[in-house]
């Protein structure tokens, strides 16, 4: 795709968020190898946010993709709560009739 050449610089409608994914590995004779992941977040017009991984024997630092996206959302001014609702559908499969469906 090529932008139309109007001679006027098109203002960017939305800031670009560039996520630089990093991984780190650590090999230890005793513990074997460990692995960590993380990212550096570049939000256009802001200071980069470093969530760099550090693989280590026991207390390495690793950030999941969810951690990274959560950080971005928080940076944009929202709070995020992750709730693990488990697998509820299994628990209630026997009582599905109490929800009434379309049986009226
Ligand atoms: Zn070790």
Brief write-up:
By secondary structure, the chain is of the alpha+beta class.
Task: Please give a structural write-up.
The chain has 104 residues and is an alpha+beta fold. It has a domain at 17-75. It is 15% helix and 26% strand. It contains 2 helices and 3 strands, in the order βββαα. Residues 28, 30-31, 57 line the site of zinc ion.
Low-confidence stretches: none
Give me the strand/helix succession.
EEEHH
Structural class: alpha+beta
Radius of gyration: 23 Å
The count of β-strands is: 3
Distance between the termini: 54 Å
Note the beta-strand portion: 25-35%
Topology summary:
Layout: E1 17-28, E2 32-43, E3 49-51, H1 65-75, H2 88-92
The structure holds zinc ion.
Zinc ion (ZN) binds next to loops.
Write out key terms for the chains shown.
single chain, alpha+beta, three-stranded antiparallel β-sheet
């Amino acid at each position: 795709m090529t932008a139309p050449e109007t001679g006027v610089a098109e203002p960017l409608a939305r800031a670009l968020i560039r996520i630089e994914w990093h991984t780190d590995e650590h090999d230890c004779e005793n513990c074997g190898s460990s692995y960590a992941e993380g990212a550096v977040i570049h939000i256009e017009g802001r200071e980069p946010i470093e969530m760099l991984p550090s693989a280590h024997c026991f207390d390495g630092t690793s950030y999941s993709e969810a951690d990274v996206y959560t950080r971005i959302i928080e940076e944009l001014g929202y709070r995020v709560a992750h709730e693990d609702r488990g697998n509820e559908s299994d628990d209630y499969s026997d009582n599905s009739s109490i929800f009434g469906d379309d049986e009226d």
